[in-house]
Amino acid sequence: MARFVLAGKADCPHFAKAENLGDQLQGSLPYFRIHKILVPPDEWQEWLDDTCRSHGWRHSGSPLVWRELLHRGGKGMLLGGLADFLEHCHEYYGVMSDMSTDKMLKIALETREMEERALNPTCSILIPHLLASTSFGISLHLLHLEGEEEALHALHVETEWLGLPLLHQVTVHAGLEEAFRDADLVILLDEWEEAGDQGGARYRRYGRLIGERANRRRGGGVRVMVAGDAHLNLKCALLAESAPSVDPGLFVAVATPLETAASARIALKLGMRTTDVRGVIVWGNPSGTFGVDLQRARVFNHTGAIQGPLSFSRPVLEVLHDRTWLKTDLPELLKGRGATLTCDPRGARPVSVSVAHGILAVLEVWNGVSHPEAEGRVLSLGVCCQGHPYVPDGVVCSVPVTLSEGGWTPVLEGIDMGDELEETLMLAVDELRQEKEEGCSDL
Q1: Half-sphere exposure in the Cβ direction for 97 (13 Å, CA)
Q2: How far apart are the first and last CA of the chain?
Q3: CB of 20 within 8 A of CB of 8?
Q4: What is the domain extent for residue 398?
Q5: Are both 103 and 145 inside the same structural domain?
Q6: What angle in degrees, to the nearest 10, is found between the helix axes of 149-161 and 121-133?
Q7: Where a domain ends, among 175, 201, 224?
Q8: Which whole-number Å values give the CA distances from 166 to 36, 180, 296, in the listed order?
Q9: pLDDT of 180-208, one tens digit each?
Q10: Residue 66 domain-assigned?
Q11: Runs of H (alpha helix) within 214-273
Q12: Do 166 and 285 have their domain in common?
């Protein structure tokens, strides 16, 4: 499998030409795949500098193209820019691009306009990956209530243009008349927009409709995921309480973006890649008071006195000796709504990339994907705790869990709740209770 990553400025004509050639090859070669990363022009230089620094590459200009060598643990091989990509495709596949300059400029302008009209950046990243990674047919229903019909239509058309054989249909709903009907999976991405209790009222209504309309016939029934970067646990609690006919264990709030943010900061501190740091746990309220637990976190591909194969790793707490940084600087860097913005140094539109990645990571495990990285993976999720030794019953709180098709199971082995972490968790629980009692009046 040849998998290439093509990154570039959203208004770059050279990116448009490389994209066109990549699409041609992907459409005609069964083992050729291309992943595209569009970066807003004003963010391009910072993104490029961070990406090259983390990989040890030297490159300037747009686009940036590399090949992922999956059989070597996912390490990337830099190709370069447009000319290098064209030369590679000509040499290996005998294909050349004859796109004119005028067409390059036109496509670049259309791409930039599409980016500016995007309904939800996470959707643009999530949907292609979701459809490409599934092994069963999907009917996709897009729901939006803010009146941006043009942007919703653009996302609809773009999804259909993917031409994926397992995509049965794409429908658009601008209201709640048909929302959640017979749904097997519900992903909620929207933010609190209204003042007062209207945001809470909206999620209570969503919950009632999910309970009335969603699929409860097969397996455990519908699965509901709340994702984004604001008030995740509260939204999840409102949904679950408003749908008493659905098992509350099937409602989860995705805290993995904060996991990724912490991993990225630690990797940056160690001069490594984000993917080399695994096993970070987030306890509490990702949108407010939370604790980052590194007891199970490990570093792979670390260069030190002790080295081993690709599967060899060392505990983060043994490799990173700066305890002051871990105790004070890291929590400060992760605080607030902007945590994922500042902590994913290699991501284009970082919040969207991180949120989409978190959703896919959860679904991969929840759907029972049987490969070594997915099997038994521990994730930080906001779940409705019952019988948990560290969280009161009924509180939706981020804790480490493993997932299976039947639901989630709390991870307790290897967890030592010290006084500091336990105090942070109790503060988070009190915060979540107060937030709920106040009926979102501060949102």
Answers
A1: 25
A2: 47
A3: no
A4: 256-437
A5: no
A6: 30
A7: 224
A8: 21, 20, 38
A9: 888 888 988 865 444 344 568 888 999 99
A10: yes
A11: 232-242, 256-270
A12: no
69 and 191 within one domain? no
Residue with tokens 């521990």: 378
In the prediction, which pLDDT does 358 show?
82
In the block, residue with structure tokens 């999720």:
381
- What is the reported pLDDT for 2? 76
Model confidence, pTM: 0.68
Overall size of the chain counted in residues: 443
Give the list of residues 6+ apart from residue 317 with CB closer than 8 angstroms, or none. 294, 295, 297
Question: Cis (ω within 30 of 0) for the bond into 63?
Answer: yes
Identify the domain boundary among 59, 89, 116. Answer: 116
Quick one: pLDDT at residue 72? 46
Q: Answer yes or no: do 326 and 383 share one domain.
A: yes
Is the residue at 234 inside a domain?
no
Looking at the fold, whether 409 and 280 belong to one and the same domain comes out as yes
Burial label for 226, CB within 10 Å (0-12, 13-18, 19+), is: buried
Do 47 and 131 fall into the same domain?
A: no
pLDDT, tens digit, 9 for 90 and up, residues 311-348 = 788 999 999 989 999 988 888 888 754 444 434 433 33
Nearest Cα neighbor of 248 from 392, 365, 393, 390 is 393
Asked if residue 273 and residue 198 are part of one domain, the reply reads no
Q: How far apart are CA 362 and CA 408, in angstroms?
A: 11
Which segments in the chain show pLDDT lower than 50?
A: 71-74, 116-119, 192-197, 337-349, 441-443
d(CA 80, CA 67): 10
Q: Is residue 233 part of a domain?
A: no
Packing angle of the helix pair 350-366, 256-270 (nearest 10 deg): 120
Q: 384: which strand partners?
A: 396
CATH for 138: 3.40.50.720
For residue 163, give both structure tokens: 């031409």
Residue 387 sits at φ, ψ, to 5 deg, of 75, 15
Element (H, E) at 151: helix 149-161
**How many domains would you assign to the chain?**
3
Q: 57: which residues sit within 8 A by CB, 6+ positions away? A: 51, 66, 78
Three-point CA angle 255, 51, 109, nearest 5° = 95
Per-residue pLDDT, 427: 93
Same domain, 161 and 105: no
DSSP 8-state code for residue 274: G
CA distance 60 to 72: 26
Burial of 92 (C-beta count, 10 Å sphere; 0-12/13-18/19+): exposed
In a domain, residue 408? The reply is yes
pLDDT of residue 104: 55
Q: How many CB atoms lie within 10 A of CB 364?
A: 17
